[in-house]
From TrEMBL:
Class of the enzyme per the UniProt entry, highest EC level: transferase
Keyword Lyase recorded: no
EC number: 2.4.1.20
GO biological process, one term: carbohydrate metabolic process
UniProt cross-references to InterPro entries, sorted A to Z: 6-hairpin_glycosidase_sf, 6hp_glycosidase-like_sf, GH94_catalytic, GH94_Enzymes, Glyco_hydro_65_C
GO function term, MF aspect, one: cellobiose phosphorylase activity
Every Glycosyl hydrolase 94 catalytic domain range: 8-209
Glycoside hydrolase family 65 C-terminal domain segment(s): 216-251
The keyword Glycosyltransferase is assigned to this record: yes
Protein name listed in UniProt: Cellobiose phosphorylase
Signal peptide: none
Pfam families: Glyco_hydro_65C, Glyco_hydro_94
Keywords assigned: Glycosyltransferase, Transferase
Amino acid sequence: MMILMDELGEGNEASDYWNEYEAMQAIVEEDGWDGAWYRRYFDADGTPLGSKENKYGQIYLNAQSWAVISCFCSYERGLQAMDSVYERLNTEFGIKLSAPGFNGFDPKVGGITTYPPGAKENGGIFLHPNPWAIIAETSLGRGDRAYQYYSQINPAKRNDSIERYECEPYVYPQNILADEHPQFGLARNSWLSGTSSWTYQAATRYILGIAANYKGLTIRPCIPSSWDGFTVTRRFRGAWYEIKVSNPNHVCVGIKKILVDGEEFDDLYIPAFAAGTRHLVEIELGKAES
């Protein structure tokens, strides 16, 4: 909303939103940081959940990914929080929602404790939030880890382990039993998930880095360092863009040079050309020349 209000020339409204944002950011940074990750929330009496103080539910995925996506946290804290995700929550089948799982019903916490540890919202691999971790990692410039998270939840990867996975290898399930559960790797509730749409956004807008903006098209890839590059054809406001990205230095992020229709281009936004026209955008990744 802040960016939209600025674009519409509504400076007072934009300023109000920025003030609210900064106030929320200060509270999250002061009260939400737990030392190596962000707390999930607080009970009415001020008791935290998602803290090292807890016996169960010490760390939650969403508190880390959204602290980064929202730009509430500093770059250094973002790295630390997402490293905690990798160390405490990641598995070969995807990222767990939380850990460790509650072992027995807790009326104060509620319904998630009705599931056994490692199942569904109680420390299971709930796939819907996994793309948010991908987006957070690209925001930190870590294309290798972002692509690792993208690849490990790809249903096609399970084609050779269907006996364990037990879901269609062409659609995302809602959840997968995690490593605290004896049936680790068993997927359930296929088709019942917002994972596919969010993974599409994570792949196209954040790994490939191609996104529509009010001012034009932005292209800021964050790819695996092993990639030589990629090509994409994108239609934007009726015009066609042939996008060729090369990565001769095998970096994850950083734009060294942009050519639009053969001419050097130094703006952040590729302009919206006339509908029906075709244009070539060439990008070389690497350290920008000073």
